[in-house]
Amino acid sequence: MKKTLLFVAILASVVTISAQSGNVGINTQQPTETLDVNGTLRVRSLTDGSSSSTYDQVLVMKTDGTIGKASRSSLGSSTLNALVKTTIESAGIHCSTGGLKVESGQDTNANGVLDASEVTSTNYVCNGMQGVQGIQGPPGPQGATGATGATGVGLTNGTAGGQVYLTSSVSPYSPQAPQTATGDVLISSTAVTTIANNAITTAKVADNAITLAKISATGTKDNTTYLRGDGTWATPSGGGSSVSEGLGRLVDANNQLIGYVQTMGTNSYVIKTSNGYITTINIDGTFPGTQSYYGDSSCSGSIKYVNSGNNTTQIRNGKYLYYEGTTGKFFKLDNVNANGYATNAAMVGIAYLYQISGTCTSSASTNYGWKVETTETTRATIGLPNTITLPLTVQ
Known about the structure:
Blueprint: H1 2-14, E1 15-17, E2 24-26, E3 35-37, E4 57-61, E5 67-71, E6 82-89, E7 99-106, E8 119-126, E9 163-164, E10 179-180, E11 185-187, E12 193-195, E13 226-227, E14 233-234, E15 249-251, E16 257-264, E17 268-272, E18 278-282, E19 292-294, E20 304-307, E21 315-317, E22 321-324, E23 329-332, E24 341-343, E25 345-346, E26 352-354, E27 360-362, E28 368-371, H2 379-382, E29 393-394
Parallel strand pairs: 2-3
Antiparallel strand pairs: 1-2, 4-5, 6-7, 7-8, 9-10, 11-12, 13-14, 15-16, 15-29, 16-17, 17-18, 19-20, 19-26, 20-28, 21-24, 22-23, 25-28, 26-27
């Protein structure tokens, strides 16, 4: 009983329990922790570990919750570093859309690099598939106004009014220096165009383009008058109600005027057209061809003569027309003099004869001939209708 009381008295002198904090202090009056020991801790007896070496001991916590001792060697060898290596993985069998290749292992040779022989695990982190197209977002705010660009080259000044700018003939077809328009059409500085004097020539006027209303003449123009050379509409002498020449008017079934009959044969008429040209027309409405000479084997070149039948000098009315049967074209004589007639002459450069039948054969004829123009004289110029409908009638 006395020993027990002595133990309690001693314990009370070294152990203090704080009522305010609930902390227990050993050899301290003011414990600040749950168990506050002020002094050294000595463990009298611990269970040995696997090693018998006295100085190779460490304090361990055993699985039953008690404290024991064990040798350091029994806890395992030196720790090895674990390494992880990542590389880009291209699209292929591991990742259809590409990604990362992740390799891991221990750095057994302690060189700080995960060598191929140290890899113990390989995995892949793949990119996701392309998502569907999102909806159109709202327009963004108006951007700031950009800086003013450099001043362009611009157009050069002209040297006169009414000039025009033209682009170059090659890429990039840039504007050239202003040019003054010349030729048949002129332009002013106010963009008014005019036709230059003497610009309208016969070649620029279409056949039948000039109507009677455009002819400046005195008198009354109707179906009883004709236009004289002095610019006067006059009534034929004799007071007739219509113009009549020669033996009568030759018309077709549609009452189209073919011409005025000058002479009449058994199967043809020599007529003067309404425009004053002389030609022959058969009673079947066809025009007879004329034997002619050419300088080429196709009988179609620019050297062309109408055969006069011999080498004696002859004259022919300048209004005479040569008809080419194979092409259906009319041609005027080329060498008409100031008196209105043409004289035959030696045929220069001819080598082929064009028969009325349409055949072209070589020829060395010494006959004279009348040279023919190479440009066709149209039916509108001659005064002939384009189509003639039988029968023909002399009125």
